[in-house]
Design a protein that fits this description.
With about 260 residues, this protein is of the alpha/beta class. Bound molecules: zinc ion (ZN) (2 copies). One zinc ion binds next to loops.
Amino acid sequence: MIDTHCHLTFEELEKDIEAVLERSVNAGVTGWITIGTDSEHNEKAAKLAQSHNNMYAAVGIHPHYAKNITARDIEILEQLATGEKIVAIGETGLDFHYNLSPAQQQKELFIKHLEIAKKLNLPVVIHSRNAFDETISVLDDFGSGIEKVVIHCFSGDIQQAKVVIDRGYYVSFTGVVTFHSADLARDVVRNVAADRIMLETDCPYMSPAPVRKQKINEPALMIHTAKFIADLKGIDFDSFAELTTKTSKDFFNLS
Ligand SMILES: [Zn+2]
Ligand SMILES: [Zn+2]
């Protein structure tokens, strides 16, 4: 399987990266897309992917940082995005939960990412929190030319999932679906076609049940989320693993 959204350059994981990857491979998670969140991590993600088999990177600037971004940062991002193992633009989007940057600046930065993705023909990894309608309206207003879109750590309801799927987009789920409080996410999982689902850890955050107490989440633990979702959908684990791996490879154009 492929962990389609992990932050392997974050200190908690990076300092022990070879052991983290070994545990991941042993658990059956043998591919990774490490996601950049700012200029420093984009650079690191590109380098880490260069030096590891089956590892790829996405580059983007998280909406949290929108207020500090200059035109030069966007140039650097676009340049980096042309790199060999860069398979997507992101994470980008809107976060009106933390509101660390003004909404207008978040939107402008999001659109800049869409422009780069369109130009380079790359899929887009979207972070959307408390901003579902606004996220969709930015995408709708942008129009055509974006190759593929995934809403990561999907936290919407069934109706919102339908809006996403109807546009041909994908959803990816983290270990949050295994949490006691996540009835809504489980309803969504049951309702979305299995071939529109991808899996992710979003590590180092949010370990899935039954290992929620593990402070630092890591790709090996995605196995719990995968089993949980396969069960929810009544698909045998091997078939589900195979299907989501195929979906992820097609989405990110991996060989
Ligand atoms: Zn995110
Ligand atoms: Zn993330």
